[in-house]
Amino acid sequence: MTTILLVEDQGLMRSSLEILLTLEEDFDITAVGTGPEALPELRSRAYDIALLDIHVPPPTGLDLVEVVSAEQLPTRCIIITTFSRPGYVRRAMDHGAAGFLIKDQPIGELADAIRRVAAGEVVIPPDLAVAALRLPPNPLSSREIDVLRASADDHTIDEIALHLHLAHSTARNYLSSAIQKLQVTNRASARQIAEHNGWL
User: Fold this and answer.
1) Spans of the chain below 70 pLDDT
2) Alpha helix positions (H), 23-76
3) HTH luxR-type domain location, by residue (predicted)?
4) Domain extent for 61
């Protein structure tokens, strides 16, 4: 029996996946909706597989992969997402994930991928694996990433600074540095490139 912790914040998606995967006779599923719910589960039970949505409320799916790796938990992690971005694949693998799957895959393929990862394989769609290998490394610092994330919805520098507890000039400098590193002329373009590459 393969024990699986499913971490998915969208209720409909979570219950659908749980129902469909429960139909597989060799799967034992536990489902939660947030990172804070997942952490004690991962630490208290030796799941074979953690099926983690990349964007669950923090700690995110990537954060959870990092915890599993850092704490040397026996669980093998698979990131699931609706976004087929090479940068996400690279980040997931850098964090120690053993699989990366797109949510629109047929349930049979998902079940097969889970079994393969449980057997010790690494499962990534080939086209995404190749694209991830070709992707340049993320040039942004963690603070530049924070500032770019906070710049969504056209927030002003003052709003970004307040949100991140930074001085106005510090927030402006981080934003300018990110724009310069990504070789664009404005923060909207910088954010677009960073999002496309999975750096945010």
Assistant:
1) none
2) 35-44, 61-70
3) 133-198
4) 2-134
